[in-house]
Design a protein that fits this description.
This protein has 14 helices and 27 strands. With 541 residues, it is of the alpha/beta class. Helix 7 crosses helix 8 and helix 11 packs across helix 12. The radius of gyration is 31 Å and the shape is elongated.
Length: 541
């Protein structure tokens, strides 16, 4: 069966066949103004993955042209995220590496009559840009002489003007049907300390101008970016053609990754952190890669999800349940099993004495995983929800007179429910049947229900954390994030767990039987079980 190629690969194949390119060079271009989120995982998948398929190279390119929002902290976080995702970049490159060259190119555009210094304020530029049906108005400063423009632009660099007092604009076409081509600003005055260059510059290039130059200077052949840049491509090409780039990089746009119930805006994620709505950029509820890592999401599941979603030409929104299904599928196959009781109810086996070890399957889906030993005893904990004083029909868990199998152990009969003064059930008194041990059952007793348990004598105290989505479902089109915030998205409570979970390494993922997938960690010296994803699959395959 022939390999199906996405539209980007089809374009590259055509160019290679026609001799337009001989090698493939891409770049992953984050701005260091926040932590990467799952949408950036898709961009990594496209940029690093495309280069890898063609035996090419992919650079890590930091677009650091807006110093007021950028930090070294974010640079370091981005590096860590890329390494966690398993990618390696050919070179680490910054827009600031090329600031002097970008400036020289601007002087060249001025000399060739393709750029001019404009005194209009940002508001005035916006007001004179026109609409989709009406042409813009030319700036009164559009026809300044080359000499005057060179003088003013040099003085801009020297710091003679206030922020916003002047800017450099490309001279293109104020009647263009593409508003991005109506004399866009390519340099602005901005006094902000840069995380790499300090205060060496007080003017900074705009991204749309710096982007094609930096691509060319890196040797990028294919500039792969998301669809919001499609309308900016004519400007990308104009810069490359005007400056005589040969070969000129080719910009190709693909659909970004949008997921329901997730905040996919770095600006708003930053606001959540600054407002204290979450514990930080790596909060397990956050869609940041740091948050997904902290939550225990496997990298393999993220890549599998990106592969399944595919690389498309048009935007769409993907159900969060699809992503969760990929995570659940991976963990179901790879995560060892363990037992914890989140809402404990005491069970006493009235006819059992002492203790013994029973075999517990590590992962039934993996025959090579084998089993480990767990201690069974007279007093156990089970989930309160596994008992009903007044059970509905076909109820196969604990009920008076009913039979239940304890996972990997024995069948027991519930004889009595002990209640406190408020009428709450606090203990179940049961009879166990020694001939019913799992793997050697000769009792002849039929028990349709199987419940998990922990030994009360050896159980470890655990803190359990469960999470809901940060965003509720949108009630109407256009509802913004602030109106959809779920302020009750983290739930913390105490539980009882196997002592085995105290022994394993922090970060280990488990399927807690009949409960969900959890990551083991230690917080303030205490065992913590943090939810990765629920056991229930809501995705309609």
């Amino acid at each position: 069966m022939a390999e199906t190629k996405n539209f980007i690969e089809q374009i590259i194949d055509g160019e290679l066949e026609a001799g337009k390119v001989t090698a493939v060079q891409t770049r992953f271009p984050p701005e260091p103004n926040g932590y990467l989120h799952i949408g950036h995982a898709k961009s990594m998948f496209v940029n690093f993955g495309t280069a890898e398929k063609y035996g090419g190279k992919c650079n890590l390119f930091f677009d650091d042209t807006n110093p007021s929002k950028e930090k070294t902290e974010f640079v370091q976080a981005i590096r860590a995220d890329i390494h966690w995702m398993g990618y390696e970049w050919a070179k680490e490159v910054y827009a600031s590496d090329f600031f002097e060259t970008i400036y020289e190119y601007a002087l060249r555009l001025i000399r060739e009559g393709k750029a001019y210094v404009c005194d209009l304020s940002p508001e005035q530029i916006r007001d004179t840009r026109g609409t989709l049906t009406e042409a813009g108005k030319e700036s009164p400063f559009r026809n300044r002489s080359v000499e005057e423009n060179l003088k003013l632009f040099t003085e801009m660099r020297q710091g003679k003007y206030a922020d916003g007092e002047k800017c450099l604009r490309a001279k293109i076409d104020m009647a263009s049907p593409n508003i991005n081509m109506r004399d866009p600003v390519i340099y602005r005055i901005l006094r902000a300390t840069h995380h790499r260059t300090g205060d060496a510059w007080c003017i900074y290039p705009m991204y749309d101008y710096a982007h094609p130059i930096c691509d060319y200077l890196q040797g990028v052949t294919h500039s792969l970016c998301t669809l919001e840049f499609e309308d900016h491509r004519p400007l990308y090409d104009w810069v490359g053609v005007s400056l005589g780039f040969a070969p000129k990089p080719r910009q190709i746009e693909f659909a970004r990754l949008n997921l329901t119930n997730l905040v996919m805006s770095k600006r708003y994620l930053k606001k959540l952190v600054e407002d204290g709505a979450v514990h930080g950029w790596d909060d397990p509820r956050m869609p940041t890669l740091a948050g997904l890592r902290n939550r225990g999401i496997p990298v393999a599941a993220i890549k599998d999800f990106c592969e399944r979603v595919g690389i498309a030409k048009s935007n769409s929104e993907c159900e969060i349940s699809y992503f969760e299904a990929c995570v659940r599928e991976y963990l179901n196959a790879h995560a060892p099993r363990a037992m914890a009781v989140l809402d404990p109810l005491k069970v006493t086996l009235v006819n059992y004495e002492g203790s013994e070890e029973v075999d517990f399957d590590i992962n039934q889906l993996d025959p090579q995983a084998g089993a480990r030993k767990i201690v069974f005893g007279k007093t156990l904990y089970v989930e309160k929800s596994d008992f009903a004083l007044d059970p509905p029909p076909k109820y196969y868990r604990f009920k008076i007179g009913g039979y239940v199998r304890l996972k990997n152990a024995y069948i027991v009969r519930c004889d009595e429910a002990v209640q406190d003064e408020r009428g709450e059930v606090v203990e179940l008194r049961c009879t166990y049947f020694p001939e019913s041990r799992s793997g050697s059952d000769t009792s002849g007793i039929k028990a349709k229900g199987v419940v998990h348990w922990v030994n009360a004598e050896t159980a470890a105290d655990a803190v359990v954390k469960q999470y809901d989505y940060l965003l509720n479902d949108a009630e109407y089109a256009g509802q913004d994030f602030s109106e959809r915030m779920n302020y009750d998205s983290e739930h913390v409570f105490s539980a009882k767990a196997e002592p085995y979970l105290n022994e394993v390494a922090d970060g280990s993922a488990f399927q807690l039987m009949r409960t969900g997938y959890y990551k083991k960690c230690t917080e303030q010296g205490k065992l913590c079980l943090s939810e990765i994803v629920s056991l229930k699959d809501n995705f309609n395959k």
